[in-house]
Amino acid sequence: MSVAQSLVSGVARITVIGAGFGAVTAIRQLRQRMPQAKISLIAPEPTLQYFPSLIWVPAKKRERNDILVDLRPLMQRLNVQFIPGRVTGLSEDARQVQVMQGEAEISVENDGLIIASGGRFLKKLPGIEHAIAVCEGIDAAERIRDRLARMTGGTIAFGFGTNPNEPSAVRGGPMFELLFGIDRLLRQQGRRDQFQLVFFNGATRPGNRLGEKAVDHLLARMDKLGIRTELGAKPLRFEADKIVTEAGEFAADLILFMPGMTGPAWLAQSPLPTSSGGMIQAEATTAVPGFDRVFVVGDSGSYPAPDWAPKQAHMADLMATAAAGNMAAAFAGQPQTATFQWELICVMDMLDRAVLVFRNTRRQFITPPCRLLHYAKRLFEWWYLRPIR
Fold first, then answer.
1. Which of 112, 294, 310, 342 has the fewest beta carbons closer than 10 A?
2. CA-CA distance, 96 to 94, in Å (whole number)?
3. Cα separation of 37 and 30, whole Å?
4. Each residue's pLDDT tens digit in the chain (389 positions)?
5. Do 3-54+66-119+263-331 and 122-261 fold alike per CATH?
6. How many angstroms separate the CA atoms of 327 and 336, rounded?
7. Domain locations in the chain?
């Protein structure tokens, strides 16, 4: 069936790439807006990883089954076809998605495409294999848990990097959560005095995307908890037992580091426009310029944005809602004008309490730590996953 026939008959073939937050919101919104559409989802596994709760895995407050959510029941309810495989590229008009299934490659045709495949971490720093990035998923979180359990003392170093060509492609929030959560865990276990915790970053005021007040709060809390800081010197390389920076080196028995991000590897085999940081260029409507009915949501896109724009699951959800609305409008012959509002909402958990960091174009604030916010974050996890499960 041609695109023209699809537009006339109303049977549109919509393909969504990815199985993360943006992809899940996209298929839910698409089905609501386009009841008759043939929707397919391409991903290696039909599984959503609930990344916000990974920071609880090292403390054994969450396990693998809590993090990995089977999407097959949701796709069955929404009448969404799952296509297993790894995307390797797109055709020149983006109407075909190349997918590797084992050793065979297939081509999946579409009349509309939403890319929600997420970004990938930049791993160019020498010795990066000595570091663990918690946001790589449950396997990484379990490695941190197991390493902590075996350690009887030593130095644990926490840090995050950036993509110098893509200012928004950074995730500092989870590293602050991991830092304060592990500090609290060691105190609960009665062995905090056997460890030195070090926070390192190339910036003198790390986390400034959260806002100046938030940075002040975080640095003051590190000082209060006896967490040493190594700031203003970029890391040059990691070794098995130390970190070497522009200003010198320091010992590290366990390195927890979140690199900056770039776009998916398959972009090199696609015609889509990319930013200098390797992300897919997008308009405020999430549309990819120069391509009909192609939208990008979440970590793999580069958008017109304020300099503090976050990479968050919350933003991926907002983008996916706009993309689905514009996709439906495109097939209805209506203007594609839906956009989304930039806002940073971070419940920064500290294992048994949390602070709320909020920022949008009008205001920003951070709350004092309280237990209620910790339970609010747990409640949100249940609320968000309930309709998916």
1. 342
2. 5
3. 8
4. 444 444 545 689 999 999 999 999 999 999 999 999 999 999 999 999 999 999 999 999 999 999 999 999 999 999 999 999 999 999 999 999 999 999 999 999 999 999 999 999 999 999 999 999 999 999 999 999 999 999 999 999 999 999 989 877 888 899 999 999 999 999 999 999 999 999 999 999 999 889 999 999 999 999 999 999 999 999 999 999 999 999 999 999 999 999 999 999 999 999 999 999 999 999 999 999 999 999 999 999 999 999 899 889 999 999 999 999 999 999 999 999 999 999 999 999 999 999 999 999 999 999 999 999 999 999 999 999 999 99
5. yes
6. 8
7. 3-54+66-119+263-331, 122-261
Helix axes 173-188, 212-224, angle to 10 degrees: 20
Structure tokens belonging to residue 264: 């998916």
Buried/exposed code over 74-109 (b: 16+ C-beta within 10 A; e: otherwise):
bbeebebeebebbbebbeeebbbbbbeeeeeeeebe
- Angstrom distance (rounded) from CA 256 to CA 157: 6
- Identify how many contiguous H helices and E strands the chain contains and give both numbers: 9, 25
The CATH number assigned to the domain with range 122-261 reads 3.50.50.60
d(CA 12, CA 15): 10
- Rounded CA-CA distance 380/312 in Å is 15
- Cβ atoms of 85 and 101 within 8 Å: the answer is yes
Tell me how far CA of residue 11 lies from CA of 14, 79, 109, 287, in angstroms: 9, 14, 13, 21
Amino acid making up residue 314: H
CA angle 326, 329, 333 (to 5 degrees): 140
* CATH 3.50.50.60 corresponds to the domain 3-54+66-119+263-331: yes
Does the predicted TM-score (pTM) go above 0.85?
yes
DSSP, collapsed to helix, strand or coil, labels residue 214 as helix
